[in-house]
Write a structure and sequence with these properties.
There is one protein chain. The protein is an alpha/beta fold. It has six helices and five strands, in the order βαβαβαβαβαα. The longest helix is centred in the N-terminal third of the chain and has 13 residues. It starts with 5 loop residues before the first strand and ends in a 12-residue tail after the last helix.
Length: 139
């Protein structure tokens, strides 16, 4: 499936970089922003921008998976890029995108569900025979 419109589910410099890359690839873009970020540059770099959350919620709306999916669907975005941080390593977002027929620009959810946290991914890569450095095998 080809990306026809990309929603960037992040803010600030991270969002600007993703928006710039999408623009260079001639992909129309959608930005989301909170009331607190209403004057942020990423809002103006996108082709379209929509406020998420209430006026008293500066960061929480960026973590609202269902809200982000609603914005994507309502505005014809068939892909979501989470940027870095916030939802970039969230298996639920990747899974929900798949369920809704939206492209998640990132890894599939399975590696995250196997490791559960960023701190505990070590046992399963070894059993899956992923390449690794010799020193990484030490306790």
């Amino acid at each position: 499936m080809k990306i026809t419109k990309l929603l960037v589910a992040n803010r600030g410099e991270i969002a600007i970089r993703v928006l710039r890359a999408a623009t260079e690839l001639n992909i129309p873009t959608v930005a989301v922003y909170t009331h607190e970020d209403r004057y942020s540059q990423h809002r103006y770099k996108a082709d379209e921008a929509y406020q998420i959350g209430g006026d008293d919620e500066p960061l929480k709306p960026y973590l609202d998976i269902e809200g982000l999916l609603r914005v994507a669907q309502a505005n014809g975005a068939n892909a979501i890029h989470p940027g870095y941080g916030f939802l970039s390593e969230n298996a639920t977002l990747a899974r929900r995108c798949r369920e809704e027929g939206i492209i998640f620009v990132g890894p599939r959810p399975r590696p995250w569900t196997r490791s559960a946290t960023r701190c505990a991914p070590r046992p399963w890569p070894w059993s899956a025979r992923y390449p690794r450095l010799r020193a990484a095998n030490r306790s």
